[in-house]
Amino acid sequence: MTESQDRLKRIVLIALLASAASGIWFLENLINPSSFRIGIANIFTLTALYTIGGTPAFLVSIIRILIGSTLAGKLFSPIFLISFSGGILSVLGMVVAKKLNRFSMLGVSIAGAFLNNIAQLLTTYLLMGKPSGMLYLFGYLSIVSIPAGAFVGWVSYLATKRVLPLFRR
Q1: Which regions of the chain are under pLDDT 50?
Q2: pTM metric for this prediction
Q3: Read out DSSP for 53-120?
Q4: Which residues form the domain of 34?
Q5: Do the Cβ atoms of 106 and 154 come closer than 8 Å?
Q6: CATH number at residue 71
């Protein structure tokens, strides 16, 4: 395979993963319009991380947030900023956790879910001051991030097993 063919495959895979992530994010938003979601769309970001690398994973996450926020009518709103901060710190943490080679895909995903919650709470604090109950919310979200991250990691593992052979052709 030539370098240009490999580059084209990467671009197509980023586009497919980002569009699938955007669609799932939008559906998850319709089902549960509150800010508390499992983060099923992150399956595609984690799949990108394990199939084509960290930079493409960032691109999938950023594109998903931009498209999802646009479709929901929340682009550049406080909710967009909260989502964006969570997405960036989550992917950054997953890239670092993966490079450490000490965590399984589930562990990397749980770290991403936890860091997403941390970034979103800090951004909320910076945007809105000190809302009452934030400390309680931190505890709740920290506990919930474990099964949510494990679920996303498990599905991503299954997806990656399917995507990698296609990408290596």
Answers
A1: none
A2: 0.88
A3: -HHHHHHHHHHHHHHHHHHTT-TTSHHHHHHHHHHHHHHHHHHHHHHHT-S-HHHHHHHHHHHHHHHH
A4: 3-167
A5: yes
A6: 1.10.1760.20
